[in-house]
């Protein structure tokens, strides 16, 4: 491979960590921060979670919502947006005999169910805001912080110039702090 090029792969988090440790990958991005001493892990950006709802929904008069406000409604969650604290709180509020939290395969599927009035969705605030034209409204969650953090990871060993340039550019684009 030419040292001036980057090749991108999409792999599971455990495969990424193993690949970084064994030198198969020079850098990676993940939604899970690692406390592995062999890896340098830096947050790149943080997304706040929010509620997606139909525009004329009963709770639409409230500026912000709490998890408790959601307990009587079917909730759609896109499984790619991992937010353990949020999922734990949603699960703890739901009655044992009800399965109110439904997992969907994509944000678009969640937005479709919400726009059709079948329930509400919980997703990244910026994603919901961009989907406003699809017939869904957004309300922030008041009792968080419920956040999704994207991390840049690489081995602590000295990176090559291509990897360093990628890291600098990623930090520049996201406005992240480049300090360790």
**What is the approximate shape?**
elongated
Number of helices: 5
Decide which structural class fits the backbone: alpha/beta
Annotation, overall tally of beta strands: 7
Backbone CA Rg:
19 Å
Largest sheet: 7 strands, mixed
Helical content band: 25-40%
* Termini Cα gap: 29 Å
Low-confidence stretches: none
Query: How would you spell out the order of helices and strands?
Result: HEEEHEHEHEEH
Strand content: 15-25%
Descriptive report:
This protein is of the alpha/beta class. The chain is built from five helices and seven strands. It has helices spanning 13-21, 84-93, 107-115, 125-130, 161-174, and strands spanning 28-30, 39-53, 75-78, 101-104, 120-124, 137-140, 147-155. The longest helix has 14 residues, at 161-174. The model has no long low-confidence stretch (mean pLDDT 84).
How are the elements arranged and paired?
Blueprint: H1 13-21, E1 28-30, E2 39-53, E3 75-78, H2 84-93, E4 101-104, H3 107-115, E5 120-124, H4 125-130, E6 137-140, E7 147-155, H5 161-174
Parallel strand pairs: 3-4, 3-5
Antiparallel strand pairs: 1-7, 2-5, 2-6, 2-7
Task: Summarize the model shown.
27% of the residues lie in helices and 24% in strands. By secondary structure, it is α/β, with parallel strands linked by helices. The two termini are 29 Å apart.
Which labels suit this protein?
180 residues; seven-stranded mixed β-sheet; 7 strands; alpha/beta; single chain
